[in-house]
Specification:
By secondary structure, this protein is of the alpha/beta class. Helices cover 37% and strands 22% of the residues. It has two domains: 115 residues, Urease, subunit C, domain 1; 312 residues, Metal-dependent hydrolases (TIM Barrel, Alpha-Beta Barrel), CATH 3.20.20.
């Protein structure tokens, strides 16, 4: 007898052979997958289960791994539309985030986690947790909702961003020594908690926000505590100019100079829109992961990251949705479609980013970027039971000729029906089972405008509104 049996579905295993099993089944016991195969074979081996799901006309696949998330920004959705990056950051996002209370940080984290679960994301990497969002409140929210996530504490000892030495809003600035102490305290309190669903990482600011010595200290501590590092890198041309003018180096040369490279530590470099080709071998050799965030890069007009070129060079590339103000949603299926189509147009090559390659970025590549590594990203016996079920019996999805391409090009997050994380059903028939979703939505709807008003901002339509 097993705890969960998913049967009669199309299983996209993402195993080494990338097998797709028609009329397949997945057996889960505890928090592990124990069997995968044809339904007829699996039900013979496991005739009974505590919970059984008939997955006819449905896909069964590993949950998505979102490698770049801002939990605090779900509450800021739509706060900074159609602005340049510097104005976006300095006039809207940082002032609003800098006014947060821990209760608001916790609320935003819950809202974000609910949205991720409802669109099939089971694991994430949060890039920059500020102490104002709640150093205990945010991990507690992740624990309560039932997600798996790496939460990176924001670290800085300079108030700048690239060539803008005072770019960071005063309410978002942190003392380097205090921030480092807080991160280490978080590691001791939370790393490995919730049955190892919560990890704590180091989240240094973009170059311009930290000294070389501080970056090196971060690298030393990440190795000491055997955890990961993630930072925004080469997102805009200002970043490249800053590293070249200040240090005479490319981004990855600078990362090596600061000892923020592997392979003895997991490092995720986010965006890498302007990463030069000479850095690709360094990325490959040091085992670093590039997190591609196409929606954010498009909305903020940052540019087009050379993702197909990086993949061809052997770099591990994952996907990320970024945050509420730069993407407006945390839907990895939408993100997959963008990642697949924008590079076709950029390179005038319709075969450059096939759906299969993009699904790998959202699953196995994302898993590889985390400390969970080989335990996630595919449906195989022994793997952690982070599994989703997608309903394909819908007018916008049939007929399903190739389930992978239909998922990437035609589906959206609302097609995800059931989500299992660590062997626990956290969503069933689109209903979140771990938390009161409506209560979170109601509170977020009320608190969002209150945060705006606190900063004297009235954010709304550009067209006249008749009340």
């Amino acid at each position: 007898m097993v705890s969960i049996l998913l049967k009669h579905g199309t299983v996209i295993t993402m195993n080494e052979r990338r097998e797709i099993i028609k009329d397949g089944a997945v057996a889960i016991d505890g928090n592990r997958i124990v069997a995968v195969g044809k339904t007829s074979d699996i039900v013979k081996e496991y005739p009974r289960a505590d919970r059984e799901y008939n997955c006819t006309h449905r896909l069964i696949l590993p949950g998505f791994v979102d490698c770049h998330v801002h939990l605090a920004q779900a509450l800021l959705r739509g706060c900074a539309d159609d602005l340049s990056l510097v104005d976006w950051l300095t006039k809207r996002v940082h002032p609003l985030q800098g006014s947060y209370t821990p209760r608001e940080g916790e609320l935003s984290a819950k809202l974000c986690c609910i949205e991720m679960i409802k669109s099939g994301t089971t694991c994430f990497v949060e890039s920059s947790l500020h102490w104002k969002y709640g150093l205990d409140e945010v991990p507690r929210a992740v624990e309560e909702v039932g997600m798996r996530g790496a939460i990176s504490k924001k670290l800085m000892n300079l108030p700048g961003y690239a060539d803008f030495p005072e770019a960071i809003h005063p309410d978002m600035r942190e003392d380097g020594e205090t921030a480092m102490r807080q991160c280490i305290q978080m590691i001791k309190r939370w790393h490995g908690k919730a049955n190892n669903r919560i990890h704590i990482w180091f989240g240094p600011r973009t170059p311009g926000g930290a000294t070389v010595e501080y970056y090196r200290e971060i690298g030393e501590n990440a190795r000491k505590y055997q955890t990961g590092i993630t930072l925004h890198l080469a997102e805009v041309q200002d970043d490249i100019r800053y590293m070249r003018n200040e240090f005479g180096m490319t981004p990855m040369q600078f990362m090596k100079h600061c000892n923020l490279v592997g392979p003895d530590v997991k490092v995720i470099y986010v965006h890498c829109v302007w990463m030069p080709p000479e850095d690709f071998p360094i990325l490959r050799e040091t085992g670093g992961t590039v997190c591609h965030c196409p929606a954010s890069n498009l909305k903020l007009a940052s540019g087009f990251a050379p993702i197909p070129e990086m993949l061809d060079a052997g770099v591990n590339v994952a996907l990320g949705c970024d945050g509420g103000p730069s993407n407006d949603c945390y839907d990895m299926i939408r993100e997959m479609k963008l990642a697949a189509i924008i590079h076709k147009a950029r390179l005038l090559n319709p075969i450059v980013m096939p759906a299969e390659r993009v699904l790998e970025m959202a699953t196995v590549n994302g898993a590889k970027a985390t400390l969970w590594g080989d335990e996630l990203g595919s449906i195989e016996p022994g793997k952690l039971a982070d599994v989703i079920v997608v309903n394909m019996r819908k007018s916008h999805l049939v007929p399903v000729r190739n389930p992978v391409s239909t998922l990437v090009y035609a589906a959206n997050g609302s097609d995800v029906e059931t989500v299992i994380i660590d062997g626990r059903v956290v969503m069933e028939k689109r209903k979140i089972l771990t938390i009161d979703e409506e209560k979170v939505i109601e509170e977020a709807s009320r608190v969002g405008p209150e945060v705006d008003a606190r900063r004297g901002l009235r954010i709304g339509p550009n067209w006249p509104v008749i009340e």
